[in-house]
Specification:
Length: 126
């Protein structure tokens, strides 16, 4: 599956934010290990190319889980800033839905961080 910059006909932005009672590295580390994402998400990973920690250009294919029907999902890391704890991804969902995700983890103090998640939803043109 090849992911290219999607042309969208409609878009919608959502930007939830939360304070998390955990050090920033405890939140950040699992987000950068795609093979272990099943421990905190409802995505069953089928393929990671190339395998290993998150890297720009890395592609992940999977399925929604645990409920039926299992819908195909595809992710591609488009940007990673380790120093600022920022991840950017392009996501393809069923029915032509696209998502550009921008996730940031900001330390507040030694035991707390803020997680900002901006996601721009769109529909493939055509």
């Amino acid at each position: 599956m090849v992911l290219q910059q999607p042309e969208t006909s409609t878009s919608y932005a959502s930007c939830p934010t939360a304070e998390v009672q955990a050090p920033v590295d405890i939140v950040w580390t699992p987000l950068t290990e795609p093979a272990g994402s099943g421990s905190f998400s409802d995505v069953r990973i089928d393929r990671i190319d190339p395998p290993g920690p998150a890297a720009v250009g890395q592609r992940i294919e999977g399925q929604s889980a645990p409920r039926l029907p299992h819908l195909k999902l595809a992710f591609r890391f488009t940007g990673i800033d380790v120093e600022k704890h920022r991840l950017m991804l392009d996501v393809r969902l069923p029915f032509g839905i696209t998502v550009q995700e921008d996730l940031r983890c900001t330390p507040i103090d030694v035991g707390k961080c803020r997680v900002d998640y901006r996601c721009d939803f769109g529909f493939l043109a055509g």
